[in-house]
Amino acid sequence: MDIKNFINNEEHIPLSGMWMDNYDPATGKIYGEIPSSNHTDVESAYQAATKAFPSWSNTPIDTKSKILSKIADLIEENLEDLARAESQDNGKPLWLAQSVDIPRASSNFRFFAHAITQYASQSHDSTGRNTLNYTLRKPLGVVGCISPWNLPLYLFTWKIAPAIAAGNCVIAKPSEVTPVTAYLLGNICKKAGLPAGVLNIVHGTGPECGQAIVEHPGIKAISFTGGTNTGARIAATAAPMFKKLSLELGGKNPNLIFSDCDYEKMLHTTVRSSFANQGQICLCGSRIFVQEEIYDKFKKDFIKLVQELTVGHPMSSTTKVGAVVSASHRDKILDYIAFAKATQKNTPF
């Protein structure tokens, strides 16, 4: 599948003519091309968004709500196609995309479709001063949304849905590692009746395409989910420009296990929280601290359950652990394993 940018409700090849390969993580084979967009493509998207903003920001709430609800409906209607695309592009098991990623993407649009109908402004009477204080919330204008590769459509829609529900126009960049469902979303939004220019999707790398979004003087806010170092660079660029920022960055989540826990529930939860989506979730536990009294028992039981996990092709219904997202990520994991074996006397495997 060859991906294109989605600008002003139309598909566009990158203005530079530059493309990148898209890899199937389960096989390591190239199965499509992705635009390698830069500042010229971002500028084109910005012009489309700027043109759309006056009309979209003044669109009645019930109209916006109906469009967002229609997007949610169409995601549900296309669940199987979207789940298969997500599984192939990301490497996660198909059943996981079917049961979590795609339904949640639909729910994101449906939630904000309803949320905007419940909005109320606030006012406060200043007794004895003959004044009234009131609060109004208005859209900012054109905003940038940059999403990660671990939950591609799930997190992409979690940024886009509230932004357009609030009346903003969006320039969105999915991860270049997992671009397919973002590409498919553009056509779904167009079919749902979202006006041209309200959502623009540009594909490319962080240093080229992402940076062009962050540093664009007309883009008023940035929502980013990804690595801590990248977040620091975004903050360094955006802060002097006084842009609004939302940064959800990396973490090292600990599992704290005490001897008085519900042991069986803890054990299965720890396995699931360590290896769900191949361990590629910001909420996954990456460190396990166990009270000494139950350490040996926990280690034995934990290893046994992990060894029972079925590692296989993402499309297989029996697969519990699919493919990690990329060759570079695989190599990073192997480096950690090698480091552990070289530095720990009692490596469990």
UniProtKB/TrEMBL annotation:
<dbReference type="InterPro" id="IPR016160">
    <property type="entry name" value="Ald_DH_CS_CYS"/>
</dbReference>
<dbReference type="InterPro" id="IPR016162">
    <property type="entry name" value="Ald_DH_N"/>
</dbReference>
<dbReference type="GO" id="GO:0018480">
    <property type="term" value="F:5-carboxymethyl-2-hydroxymuconic-semialdehyde dehydrogenase activity"/>
</dbReference>
<comment type="similarity">
    <text>Belongs to the aldehyde dehydrogenase family.</text>
</comment>
<dbReference type="InterPro" id="IPR016161">
    <property type="entry name" value="Ald_DH/histidinol_DH"/>
</dbReference>
<feature type="domain" description="Aldehyde dehydrogenase">
    <location>
        <begin position="20"/>
        <end position="343"/>
    </location>
</feature>
<keyword id="KW-0520">NAD</keyword>
<keyword id="KW-0560">Oxidoreductase</keyword>
<feature type="active site">
    <location>
        <position position="248"/>
    </location>
</feature>
<dbReference type="Pfam" id="PF00171">
    <property type="entry name" value="Aldedh"/>
</dbReference>
<dbReference type="InterPro" id="IPR029510">
    <property type="entry name" value="Ald_DH_CS_GLU"/>
</dbReference>
<dbReference type="InterPro" id="IPR015590">
    <property type="entry name" value="Aldehyde_DH_dom"/>
</dbReference>
<dbReference type="GO" id="GO:0004030">
    <property type="term" value="F:aldehyde dehydrogenase [NAD(P)+] activity"/>
</dbReference>
<protein>
    <submittedName>
        <fullName>5-carboxymethyl-2-hydroxymuconate semialdehyde dehydrogenase</fullName>
        <ecNumber>1.2.1.60</ecNumber>
    </submittedName>
</protein>
<dbReference type="InterPro" id="IPR016163">
    <property type="entry name" value="Ald_DH_C"/>
</dbReference>
